[in-house]
Amino acid sequence: MSLERFIEQAISPWMSQEGPDSDIVLSSRIRLARNISVYQFPTVANNEECKEIIQLFEHRFESQSFDPVGNFELLKMSELQPIEKRVLVEKHLISPHLAEEANFGACLLSENEEVSIMINEEDHIRIQCLYPGFQLSEALHVANELDDWIEDSIDYAFDEKRGYLTSCPTNVGTGLRASVMMHLPALTLTQQMNRIIPAINQLGLVVRGIYGEGSEALGNIFQISNQMTLGKSEDDIVEDLKSVVHQLIVQERAARDTLLKTSSIQLEDRVYRSFGVLAHSRIIESKEAARCLSDVRLGIDLGFIKNVSRNILNELMILTQPGFLQKYAGGALRPNERDVRRATLIRERLILENSNSPDEKEAK
């Protein structure tokens, strides 16, 4: 399979789009946790109950259409290969926890992959909506409509005082997790993130890495999300997060301006050195690749690098993960083989980008 065709098939359609403030906010996500009243929570449910829940979703929702995301397809974890599940995790369509539920987990996935409904994860139902750029309100609107659509057929576990009941007490109430994925290289380079993260935590929000809890902020990509789910409405939770994200956007842009004014030549040198590493390396580890991709994306945003798509960071941060590398290779790879394959894929992607640029086409 050619790289171009692989990218078209591998990358979710929403990933190739740009949304508001997409120079800094890569994506917005809303996740709602729900449980079915007549079943025990997945953490204590027996195998038969878990099977029944999957069958319930298979019969009522698979191949059903929900505007504006289209039809849903049911993916059973027991029917997927380990590499396939890893790819779904790397695309943020399922959680690592669900991928481990080999026999009793499933996912309803929309055609455009903006919506995934995880079944028998920590809760019976986890509705997730993903949007490009800074679109938390839009994602919440679709998630609420989808929530109502499901509730027409299913009786949720709900308490008048406590709200939606969940396996983990930290999700009780709204069951809402709102998050944004942000690229903050200038705040990191100016060492401001060290003081910003504790300040954000004091506001009841949490800062994590690219794959959520327990993951690193590879490539200067940070996930900002709410911690509180009880005592506030969904709209208030989202508005609080939006307010903090707005401030981070302003601070990141100010930090970029400062770097341009005080260290322009050093910054440009850093960007082009990283571009050279990506364009010519034969072996590259994931951390180095993430750092260089972050530098190049910053260089594109600041106008140092022309004719390279801003979305290249979104694409390559996913395509160079272990699951995707092995899928593209057609089989399992040892760590050192993945480093070689990662370098090759990045070089090929940059060559493909150059061949598709307007200047290159005009020259031909």
TrEMBL record:
Keywords: Allosteric enzyme, ATP-binding, Kinase, Nucleotide-binding, Transferase. Appears to be allosterically activated by the binding of pArg-containing polypeptides to the pArg-binding pocket localized in the C-terminal domain of McsB. Its EC number is 2.7.14.1. InterPro entries: Arg_Kinase, ATP-guanido_PTrfase, ATP-guanido_PTrfase_AS, ATP-guanido_PTrfase_cat, Gln_synth/guanido_kin_cat_dom. ATP binds at residues 27-31, 92, 126, 177-181, 208-213. Residues 24-255 form the Phosphagen kinase C-terminal domain. A motif (RDXXRA motif of the pArg binding pocket involved in allosteric regulation) lies at residues 338-343. One of its GO terms (molecular function) is protein arginine kinase activity. It catalyses: L-arginyl-[protein] + ATP = N(omega)-phospho-L-arginyl-[protein] + ADP + H(+). It holds the Pfam family ATP-gua_Ptrans. It comes from the Bacteria. Coiled coil: none annotated. It is an enzyme of class 2 (transferase). Catalyzes the specific phosphorylation of arginine residues in a large number of proteins. Is part of the bacterial stress response system. Protein arginine phosphorylation has a physiologically important role and is involved in the regulation of many critical cellular processes, such as protein homeostasis, motility, competence, and stringent and stress responses, by regulating gene expression and protein activity. Belongs to the ATP:guanido phosphotransferase family. PANTHER family: ARGININE KINASE 1-RELATED (PTHR11547:SF38), ARGININE OR CREATINE KINASE (PTHR11547). This is Protein-arginine kinase. The lineage of its organism: Bacteria, Bacillati, Bacillota, Bacilli, Bacillales. The gene is mcsB.
